[in-house]
Amino acid sequence: MHEFSLAKEIESIVALTLAEKPARLIQVNLVVGGLSGVLPEALLSALELISAEGPLKGAKFSIREDKATFKCKSCGALTTPQPPFFCCEQCGSWDGELGGGSELNIESLEVEQ
Amino acid sequence: MTIKYEVMKDVMAGNKKQAQENRHFLRHKGVFTMNLMGSPGSGKTTLIEALIKELSSAGKSAVIEGDLATTIDGERIAKLGVEVFQINTVGACHLNAEMVHRALARLNLSGISFLFIENIGNLVCPAAYALGEELRMVLVSTPEGDDKASKYPLLFRSADVLVVTKADLLGAVDFSLERVSKDARRLHRDIAIYQVSAVRGDGLPQLAEFISRRREECLRNTSHSK
C-alpha cells in the first residue's frame, strides 16, 4: 500500500548514486523479499508513474523476488514458508528459523556511458 | 556501452537510520516511546487517554498524534493537559521516522517519561516503518474479529505487545481471545498479550504496570550502555 513512498525513496537513492557516477540510466534492478510486505506489481506501477520525468526518466525496472526460507528444527527440511504463519511446509512445525525475505534492495543499476 | 553498477542499497536504510537516531535521542532523555498501531476505530486514542491517567503516578506522558487530515484526536488528548503534537500525513498511510523526528523537535519533552505515538489506522503499512520506539503495540478491538493476526501477519510479527480492546463487548460480539492469542503467538512467540476495557477500566492497571516495567528495563539498559 505504501509502494509510492518506496518508489520515491528509490528515485532519491538512484539520483544520489548517479550524482557520484554520472551516466545515462537504462535499468534499475531491485530485490523484493517475500516478507517485506511490498507488492512487486504495485511497486512497478508506482515506478512507471514517477519515471515519466525526473532522475528515473526513461528507465526500465526489473524486480527479482527473494522468497523467505524456513529451516525446521523438527524434521530438518528447508522450505519456502507461506503466509500467514510461515511454518514448516513439510511437517507443519513452528519450531525453526525463518530466514531472508525481509529486504527491499536496489541491487544494481545498468547505465550507458 | 552498457555497464552495471553493483549498488546493493537498502531502500529502507534512510528510515532505519532516522529511527535509530530518534531512539537514541529519546532514550537519553529518559523517554520510553510506544508506537500504537491498529485499525481505524480499534480504540487507539481512547487507550492512550486511559493509559495517560493510569500511568500518571509513574510519570508524565506526551503524545504524537498521527492522522490523515484532522486534528480531532490531538484535541481530545490536549484536553487532558498533556503535551501533544499533531502530524497530518495528508493522505499517507503510515508515519515514518522523519515525520517523528520533526515532531520531536517541536515537543517539550522535559520531565516526560512516556511518549505515545498514535500511528495511522492501518494494519498493513505501519509494519514496515520503525519510528524510534521501544515498544510496538498492536490493538485489536473485539468487534473487529479474532482473525486479525492471521490476516495481517507482518504487523503482528513485528509487535511486542497485543492489546485486545473493548473487552466489555465480549459476549455481545463473536470474538475468541484464545484464537487471536494463539495466532499472535505463532507469529511472535514472545508477544505479550493484554485484554482491556477502557470504559470499565479492567486490564488497564496490568497494562500500565507492564509499560512501567519495560521503561525501567530500558532505562537500566541505557545506563549500562553509556
What spatial form of chain A do the alpha-carbon principal axes imply? elongated
Low-pLDDT segments of chain A: none
Number of helices of chain B: 8
CATH class of the domain at 13-136 and 201-225 in chain B: Alpha Beta
- How many strand elements of chain B? 8
Largest interface, with Cβ-Cβ < 8 Å?
A-B, 33 and 31 residues
Mean pLDDT of chain A: 92
Estimate the helix proportion of chain B, in percent. 25-40%
Side by side, the strands of the main sheet of chain A go 2-1-6
Structural class designation of chain B: alpha/beta
Would you kindly provide a written description of the structure presented here, covering whatever features stand out?
The complex is a heterodimer of chains A (113) and B (226). Chain A has a domain at 3-67 and 100-112: 2-Layer Sandwich (hypothetical protein PF0899 fold). Chain A is 26% helix and 32% strand. Chain A contains 2 helices and 6 strands, in the order αβαβββββ. In chain A, strand 1 (24-33), helix 2 and strand 2 form a beta-alpha-beta unit. Chain A is elongated and about 50 Å long. The mean pLDDT of chain A is 92. The termini of chain B are far apart. Chain B is of the alpha/beta class. The mean pLDDT of chain B is 94. Chain B has helices at residues 13-28, 44-54, 72-78, 97-106, 148-151, 153-157, 177-187, 204-225; strands at 2-10, 32-38, 60-67, 83-88, 112-118, 135-141, 161-165, 192-195. Chain B has a domain at 13-136 and 201-225: P-loop containing nucleotide triphosphate hydrolases (Rossmann fold, 3-Layer(aba) Sandwich).
Brief rundown of the structure:
The complex is a heterodimer of chains A (113) and B (226). By secondary structure, chain A is an alpha+beta fold.
Key terms:
heterodimer; A: 113 residues; alpha+beta; 3-stranded mixed β-sheet; 3-stranded antiparallel β-sheet; 2 helices; B: 226 residues; alpha/beta; Rossmann fold; 8 strands; 38% helix; globular
